[in-house]
Design brief:
heterodimer; A: 355 residues; alpha+beta; Rossmann fold; OB fold (Dihydrolipoamide Acetyltransferase, E2P); 2 domains; six-stranded mixed beta sheet; five-stranded antiparallel beta sheet; elongated; disordered N terminus; B: 295 residues; mainly alpha; MetI-like fold; two-stranded antiparallel ribbon; 12 helices; 2% strand
Chain lengths: 355, 295
C-alpha cells in the first residue's frame, strides 16, 4: 500500500456517504479512507453506486447524508469549480471547439496562469501522455486513444489534489485498453497523484489499483488489495465478480470437506452443509481416483495461453483453466479427476434457505 | 470511427434510385424550376400601360430596379427588417433553447409547444392579434397603458417598421430555437461538468463552452430566419400595410395592382438573387470557421 507513512491524518475520507434518489438508495453508507498517493478503484456492476460516489466527490451531485473530507477539510462546503480535482470522463468530454492544446490550457487559464507558463505546462502535459506535437489538432480529428490521452493531460495539468477517473478506458478496444492501463499506472506512479478510478472491469481494477473497493447495490462488499480480494473474497458476490469462480455444494465433518467423491482436509472449516469456492486456475486435472472428485469433459475451448474446460461432475459443472504448455490435455468426453490444494478453496457454511 | 464498409450500389441500384426519386424530381422541376425560369425571362420583357406585356428582351426593368432610389429604399428596408429580426430571434432564441434543453420531461414538451405556438396559428389570426393589442387608440394594450397614464398617445405599432419587426420575430423565433436546440442536443452534458471541474464558473462555462458549441446552430437558425424574414409576405402586408412596403409586398403590388408583371418579376428575381448570395456567403463562412471542429 502506498503512502501510508503520511502525516497521521487521512488524505481523503468518505464517512457514511449516502445518496438517495427518490426512495432508492444509490449509495448506502459508504466509508472509505484514501491515503495520499494511493490508487483506489471503485469496482462493481452498473448501478452499484460507484459513479454516483465519484460524482459526489466531484461535486456534480448533492450528498444526501454523510461527509467528505480532504486533508481534514469539509469538501462538501467547497464549490465544484474550487475543489481542484482532475476528472477524466467516460466520454472524455473534451471541448470540441478547442484544439488539444487549448483543451489542456483551459484549466490553467481558469487558474489565471500566464501565457508563457501555460504553454510550457501544456507542452509538458502533452509529452507526458505521448502526444507531443499534436497541440494544434482538434479532438474530432483524433483517435479514441488520443482523445483519451488529451482528457488525461487536461486533468493532470492543473496538478489536481485528486485524479478522478470515470470508466476512462471503457471506450477503447481491448488491445489499446491494456496499453493504456500500463501507461496510466506508469504516469500515476511518476506523478504520485492520489487517484480514484471507477470501473466495472475487474481486470482493469486489478491491474491498476493499490486497493479495490468492491461495491454492489450501493453497499461496499469489500475493501482490500486486489490480490487479497481475489484470493480471499469477503462475500460470494466479490468471488463471482472478481474473475471466474466455481461455487460447489459440499459437506464438512470433523475438518474433512467432502464434495461428491472428493475429500480435502481443512481443520478450520465448520461442520455442516457448506459452499466451497474455488478458482478455475487452481484446479488441476489428474487421472481419476476413488477419493477424487471426477467428471466428464463436456467442452474445452482454446484461448491461446490457456484452455478453458467445462467438466460435468456429481457436484455440478466446474470450470477449469489449464495453462497451455504445448501438449494437448484431455479431450471432450474423457473422464478426469479434479484436485486442488485445501488452501486454495474457501469453505463457508451454507445458509438454510430453499433457494 | 465508423466501420467504413458500405457496399457500392450496382448499376441497377443507381437506376432504381433515379426511378424512385423521379416523381419528386418531376414535381420539383415543374413547380419550382420552370416557374422560376419563366419569371426570370419575364423580367426582361417590356410592359406598357396600353400595350401590355411585350415578349422582347430588354434591360429596362432591371435598370429601373437597380437605379431608382424608390426601389433601393424598399430593398434596404427589407434587409434592415430581416437583419433586426435575425438579431432579436438569436438573442431571445439561443438562451431559450439552452433552457429548453435543460428542462425535464413533462416541462420540456409543454414549453416546446408554447414555443412552437406561433407556427400553429394562422398568419391572419396571429397578425390580427397584434392589431387587436396595439392597433391605434382602441388596441387593448394601448388603452390599458393610456388608462394607467403611462403613455399619452397610442404606441406606434401598426404600419411601422417596429411593428413588422416585432411580429416577424414572434413567428420566426421557433425556427431559431429548434436549430439551436438541435445543436445543443449533440453536446455532451459532461462537457460542462468538465469545464466546471477545471475551475470555470457558470458564466465562463456558458461563454467559453456552451455558446461556441451552440454557435453552428445559432448561425444555421439565423440563416433560416433571415431568409424567411426577408421574403415574408403576409405579416408585412397586414402590419406594414400599403404605407410600409417591403420587397415581397412590392412585387405583389406590381403584379396585381399595377399589373406591371415584368417589373414585379425583376423585383422578385432580385430579392431571390440577393437572398441566395447572402445565404451562400454565410454558409461558406460557417463551413470555413467550423469545418475543423464540427465535421
Amino acid at each position: 500500500m502506498a503512502g501510508s507513512a503520511g502525516i497521521g491524518m487521512p488524505f481523503l475520507e468518505l464517512d457514511n456517504l449516502t445518496k438517495r434518489f427518490g426512495d432508492q438508495l444509490a449509495v448506502d453508507g459508504l466509508s472509505l479512507v484514501v491515503d495520499r498517493g494511493e490508487f483506489v478503484t471503485l469496482l462493481g456492476p452498473s448501478g452499484c453506486g460507484k459513479t454516483t460516489t465519484l460524482q459526489m466527490i466531484a461535486g456534480f451531485l448533492d450528498v444526501t447524508s454523510g461527509s467528505i473530507r480532504l486533508e481534514g477539510r469539509d469538501l462538501l462546503a467547497v464549490k465544484p469549480a474550487r475543489r481542484g480535482l482532475g476528472i477524466v470522463f467516460q466520454s472524455y468530454a473534451l471541448f470540441p471547439h478547442m484544439t488539444a492544446g487549448e483543451n489542456i490550457a483551459f484549466g490553467l487559464e481558469m487558474q489565471g496562469i500566464g501565457r508563457a507558463e501555460r504553454n510550457e505546462r501544456v507542452r509538458g502535459a502533452l509529452a507526458l501522455v505521448g502526444l507531443a506535437g499534436l497541440a494544434e489538432r482538434y479532438p474530432r480529428r483524433m483517435s479514441g486513444g488520443q482523445q483519451q490521452r488529451v482528457a488525461l493531460a487536461r486533468a493532470l495539468v492543473i496538478r489536481p489534489r485528486i485524479l478522478l477517473l470515470d470508466e476512462p478506458l471503457s471506450n477503447l478496444d481491448a488491445k489499446l485498453r491494456e496499453e493504456m492501463q500500463l501507461e496510466l499506472r506508469q504516469i500515476q506512479r511518476t506523478l504520485g497523484t492520489t487517484t480514484i478510478l471507477v470501473t466495472h472491469d475487474q481486470a482493469e481494477a486489478m491491474a491498476l489499483s493499490d486497493r479495490v473497493v468492491v461495491m454492489n447495490r450501493g453497499r461496499v462488499e469489500q475493501i482490500a488489495t486486489a490480490q487479497e480480494a481475489y484470493e480471499r473474497p469477503a462475500s460470494p458476490f466479490v468471488a463471482s465478480f472478481l474473475g471466474k469462480t466455481n461455487e460447489l455444494a459440499g459437506r464438512v465433518s470433523l475438518g474433512v470437506v467432502r464434495i461428491a467423491t472428493g475429500t480435502w482436509t481443512k481443520p478450520t472449516a465448520a461442520d455442516g452443509q457448506a459452499i466451497v469456492v474455488v478458482r478455475p486456475e487452481k484446479i488441476a486435472l489428474a487421472p481419476p481416483a476413488p477419493d477424487r472428485l471426477t467428471g466428464t469433459v463436456r467442452m474445452r475451448v482454446f484461448q491461446g495461453n490457456h484452455w478453458l474446460y467445462r467438466i460435468e461432475t456429481a457436484a455440478g459443472a466446474i470450470l477449469v483453466i489449464r495453462q497451455n504448455r504445448g501438449e494437448p490435455g484431455p479431450a471432450e468426453g474423457e473422464t478426469v479427476g479434479l484436485s486442488w490444494r485445501a488452501e486454495d478453496m474457501l469453505v463457508r457454511p451454507r445458509r438454510e434457505d430453499p433457494a | 470511427m465508423r466501420s467504413g464498409k458500405v457496399s457500392r450500389p450496382s448499376l441497377g441500384g443507381a437506376r432504381v434510385a433515379w426511378l424512385l426519386s423521379l416523381p419528386a424530381l418531376a414535381i420539383f422541376v415543374a413547380v419550382v424550376i420552370v416557374p422560376l425560369a419563366m419569371t426570370a425571362l419575364l423580367s426582361f420583357h417590356d410592359w406598357g400601360q396600353y400595350k401590355g406585356i411585350e415578349p422582347v428582351l430588354i434591360l429596362k426593368n432591371w435598370r429601373e430596379v437597380l437605379t431608382d432610389p424608390y426601389f433601393r429604399e424598399m430593398f434596404v428596408r427589407t434587409f434592415r427588417i430581416a437583419l433586426l429580426v435575425t438579431l432579436i430571434t438569436a438573442l431571445l432564441g439561443a438562451p431559450e433553447a439552452y433552457i429548453l434543453n435543460r428542462m425535464r420531461s413533462p416541462w420540456r414538451g409543454i414549453f416546446l409547444l408554447v414555443i412552437l405556438g406561433p407556427l400553429l396559428i394562422s398568419v391572419v389570426a396571429r397578425t390580427l392579434g397584434w392589431a387587436l393589442l396595439f392597433g391605434g387608440s382602441s388596441g387593448v394594450v394601448n388603452r390599458a397603458l393610456m388608462g394607467l397614464g403611462l403613455i399619452k398617445g397610442p404606441l406606434p405599432f401598426m404600419f411601422t417598421e417596429t411593428g413588422v419587426v416585432v411580429a416577424l420575430s414572434h413567428v420566426l423565433l421557433p425556427f431559431l430555437v429548434l436549430a439551436v436546440w438541435a445543436a445543443l442536443q449533440r453536446v455532451d452534458v459532461q462537457v460542462e461538468n468538465a469545464a466546471t471541474s477545471l475551475g470555470a464558473g457558470h458564466l465562463t462555462v456558458l461563454r467559453r463552452i456552451v455558446l461556441p458549441q451552440a454557435m453552428p446552430g445559432v448561425l444555421s437558425g439565423a440563416i433560416i430566419v433571415f431568409a424567411l424574414a426577408a421574403s415574408a409576405f403576409a405579416t408585412p402586408a397586414i402590419i406594414g400595410g400599403r404605407r410600409l412596403k417591403v420587397a415581397a409586398t412590392l412585387a405583389y403590388d406590381e403584379f396585381l395592382n399595377t399589373l406591371n408583371w415584368p417589373l414585379g418579376a425583376a423585383v422578385a428575381v432580385l430579392l431571390l438573387l440577393a437572398l441566395v448570395a447572402v445565404i451562400l456567403g454565410c454558409n461558406a463562412l460557417i463551413e470555413r470557421r467550423y469545418a475543423e471542429a464540427f465535421r
